[in-house]
Amino acid sequence: MKKLFAMCLIISLLSACKKKDQNTPTETLEGYVFLHNEFGQYQQNNAGVTISVVNGPTATSDSSGKFTIPNSPINNSYSNLPTDYTITYSKSGYGACSTIYIDSSHLASIDLYAIPTTIVTGLKAKVIDFNNGTITVTVTISPPGAVNQPRSVVLFWGSDSTVSSTNYEELYYLGEITSDTLVTTSYTLSYVDPTYIVAYGVACNSGFLPLNLNNNQLPLNQNLNQNPLLTEYPAINPNHSVVVKVNTH
Questions:
Q1: pLDDT tens digits for 61-80?
Q2: What is the SS3 assignment for 150?
Q3: Torsion angle, CA of 246/199/109/48, rounded to 10 degrees?
Q4: Would you say the CATH fold of 119-205+236-246 matches that of 25-113?
Q5: Where does the chain show beta strands of DSSP type E?
Q6: Where are the domains of the chain?
């Protein structure tokens, strides 16, 4: 009798779980992802990007960049939002991207940038105003940039000698490097003395905005399509410059 009761209980539980799964609401997600080379230029073929819904299905983009993900479970982890999805975009050789969408009917177009070949071979920092803590930074890169193949560098700095792209207090995007391998500019340091600076080559025109340090990657473009929950990760060359120590006082 006890064995029969136990068997009936198990069958009942399995039936309840199956019914619950059948009632889980789903919908089809559609969107576009566009590939850029390391110089920020659009690529004609946008195929091969893997798009994955966290805890859900996966799709691959076609040559136009379009993807379709059927049977995506509708999530409501934000109590004050109707629908949200966490979607990841990835392709070998490109910076990955993770995005939270609060409205599946308005999926933003995503841009992935190729990991650059730009290597920062030299970094110098010189104080030009001790009263204001203003410095001049000179960066040397290889290979050099050109008008039709611009390159970019980001400076990371903070009060820790182990400063890096995942351990920093402030960053500055130097913009396009088009004519030679030297970039000289002035910045006012806002941190304690001494300050440590390191430089990395990054994909050109990808734009930067420090947000958090999730997944040991540098976030950027929080404001794409005015979606405050968007987090995009850029392409960054892991080969960085030497760390430079600056005494501002």
A1: 999 999 988 877 765 544 44
A2: coil
A3: -160
A4: yes
A5: 26-36, 50-53, 58-60, 66-73, 85-90, 97-101, 110-113, 119-129, 134-142, 151-158, 170-177, 182-188, 195-202, 230-232, 244-246
A6: 25-113, 119-205+236-246
Query: Could you tell me which CATH class the domain 119-205+236-246 is placed in?
Result: mainly beta
Distances (CA, A) of 22 to 16, 53, 73: 10, 19, 11
The CATH architecture assigned to 25-113 reads Sandwich (2.60)
Q: How many Å apart are CA 40 and CA 32, to the nearest integer?
A: 17
Give the side-chain half-sphere CA count within 13 A for 55.
8
What tens digit of pLDDT does each residue of 106-165 get? Answer: 566 788 999 999 999 999 998 887 777 788 899 999 999 998 899 989 888 888 899 988
